[in-house]
Amino acid sequence: MRKRRRNSLDMAIVDVWQREVGQLSTRNFAHRLAASEDLVLRLDIFRKLEKHRGCVNTVSFNADGDIVVSGSDDRRIIFWDWETGSVELSFHSGHNNNVFQAKIMPYTDDRSIVTCAADGQVRHAQVLERGEVETKLLGKHQGRAHKLAVEPGSPHIFYTCGEDGLVQHFDLRTGAATQLFTCQSFHDHSYMPIIYLNAIAIDPRNPNLFVVGGSDEYTRLYDIRKYKWDGSTDFGQPMDYFCPSHLIGDEQVGITGLAFSDQSELLVSYIDEFIYLFTREMGLGPYPDPVSTDSEASEMGADHHSAFPSAMDADVKDSPQVYKGHRNCDTVKGVNFFGPKCEYVVSGSDCGRIFIWKKKGGELIRVMQADKNVVNCIEPHPHTTVLASSGIETNIKMWTPNALDRATLPTNIEKTRSKPRGGWLNHMALPHDFMMQLFSQERRSASPVHDGDNSAAGRQLVELIFTINTNSDGSSDDGGNTSGPEDFFH
Prior knowledge:
Keywords: Repeat, WD repeat. InterPro entries: DCAF8, WD40/YVTN_repeat-like_dom_sf, WD40_repeat_dom_sf, WD40_rpt. This is DDB1-and CUL4-associated factor like. It comes from Actinidia chinensis var. chinensis. The structure is a single chain. About 15% of the residues lie in helices and about 30% in strands. The protein has a 4-stranded antiparallel β-sheet, with no helix packed on it. Strands 2-3-4-5 form a 4-stranded antiparallel β-sheet, with no helix packed on it. It has helices spanning about 10-20, 25-35, 35-40, 415, 430-445, 450-470; strands at about 45-50, 55-60, 65-70, 75-80, 85-90, 100-105, 110-115, 120-125, 135-140, 145-150, 155-160, 165-170, 175-180, 200, 210-215, 220-225, 240, 255-260, 265-270, 275-280, 320-325, 335-340, 345, 355-360, 365-370, 375-380, 385-390, 395-400. A hairpin with a 7-residue loop joins β6 and β7 (about 110-115). It has 3 domains: about 1-35; about 45-425, Methylamine Dehydrogenase, Chain H (7 Propeller); about 425-490. It is globular and about 60 Å long. By secondary structure, it is α+β, with helices and mostly antiparallel strands.
């Protein structure tokens, strides 16, 4: 006789019984409960946090999970008690343009916050006694700085990346910015010699490793231990690359989001494409073959080779898991894991909805309406089944498993996804973005003795570009506030 497949209620009853007789520890029981598909299917809006006066571009939790910190086009940073909806702290970030990311540094009693923004600035805010806040400039990118990554467990160390291709290392003990490298295009014939970086992430199991991604098809992995702090070595060469085989050589795609799981698995979200999950064994090595396999490879079916010795003898190489259904064309969207052991994958979409897949197998199990326009940020609670989301609207939505009924998938998912691929040139906000790439590369390659002349010439170039584009705007991910030439210089 064919056995009946157990549903989530069956498994819950078994888990309770095993806990009661001592076969399942309280900790494992709590993990299984938090990872329950039943809870995911009951996620609903618990509360809207409303105080910002612009698009909310960043949301994150503190270590305890009781505070949400957000940043917006209004350039303000707000601390929320998300359970009550009350504002605990609100202050101006010090940025001149839209705040793109804000994070609380660990083990600082929620008093140390780092931010980056559309003005290219990287800033540090410190909460003093009586709630006063001091902010100061730590460093700057030549163009927008979309993301920063905090070293796990460190109250001092974090990294930033920007559209100038530059990756910087910051140590709050010294307040100094170290320019590690400028990410160069892998394609010699590329019209953008510098990679326009959108995302950076640190491996939580090995904080020496970090990845960056941007305006080409490759995610690049670096080991900070290989950097010589006296600048005596070229640190720009990645130790590994990651890319689905059918996208190698495809100059129409780019990367908007990166995330590591607690098991060092790597999520990569592509613009005009899908989301992929890589393990370390799927790396292409430090010198990948740039030959395109797009015309030969079927969707996620082509083999590719790795420089890892353990995989060299394998005839067939495992392909990364793919997650489909959402649309990622219009803005710089993040991607994340969800669940106590990263059992799920979550992403926003241009259709204004949140998509949740099972990590294993890639099954889409939940689609939730979360914004009238676009959902850009989804942040999981550090300890329980709660999500925070934000997008083009001016509020933050908190999601908890409080719905009485289990949700079902909508029937019109694919209709919202189709959109012609336009390539990265269409996603650069202004013509001056491209010019800034060329200017930035020229400026960094110049001799140090001519720095003053280069800065003056560069300022004249930028002013000319902004004069040409006086009627353009789009300094933010959603086409928000404009910026001036002063935003690119100290």
